[in-house]
């Protein structure tokens, strides 16, 4: 059977008459869930007054979207749902009772997400597919429209389907878990307590470090020790707080005051009270960006063009082949207004001779550096 390839645009999904929306993203990872927040913002802006439901996996999405006024239901499928068939199928049939005006499958190449989209009831069904027929979608968007960055792909998906004359736009919603003012206040209070006890100052800069990641993305403790020693030499006025990972153990030898919480929003609230967060590529890096703290994401093995932090002063640092000392110099050089002192900046300039400035991608504080390409 010959496949019909998407070559022409369908009629745009109308703005009017869309009130019940379902986003189908069955994934349990923190980072992937947070990377969905720009799509929710885009849906709110396009379909004002609509109510949004989300299908996820595990319970992380309930915390991430707890303060989103437009989000009504977060349906959390059990992890490894086929090992819990009664709960899994029961929840799917509950969702299927609602006939949605729009179902969005934001994934690129997920058979599970597409199967759920086919099964559920929706007047319009939107997703990426190069097949005009057989996809189970009313609006199939060519995969060429998808940008490399995971947070920007679904935004392009919606814009392409809803616009008669598609032109790729540069401005994208940022990651955002929408912390409330009480959460911000609690975070600031915790930071004050931690710095007071460790005899550090609450005067900027307060720098958070998250030193954990999965597999090859994790930098060893020795690397972080060298990084922090150089960082403190160049920016001695900086106060440091370690964010403790989910396993509850310091990755820096408990040398610095640490904050631990199994609650995602509490962790985000504390990070939001900092002036800078430094992390390897991981879910907590995305949480920091979504908590609106300028974030440097360290990338040694993964593709920064897919997962890089962006917006509000955040940027990626490509560390492949870079020493810990060089990485620290790059970070201080990228934030001179926050971290720099005349003597320290002179040391940075002399110490980074021979280091390619393109290793640091982004323009966090107006630096004349190459912007990360999509």
Automatic annotation (TrEMBL):
Keywords of this entry: Glycosyltransferase, Transferase
A matching Pfam family: Glyco_transf_9
GO terms assigned for molecular function: ADP-heptose-lipopolysaccharide heptosyltransferase activity
Keyword Transferase: yes
The UniProt record lists the keyword Mitochondrion: no
Lineage: Bacteria, Pseudomonadati, Pseudomonadota, Gammaproteobacteria, Lysobacterales
Organism: Dyella soli
PANTHER family according to UniProt: TETRAACYLDISACCHARIDE 4'-KINASE-RELATED
Coiled-coil intervals: none
Source organism superkingdom: Bacteria
GO cellular component: cytosol
Gene Ontology process terms (BP): lipopolysaccharide core region biosynthetic process
Protein name stated in the entry: Lipopolysaccharide heptosyltransferase family protein
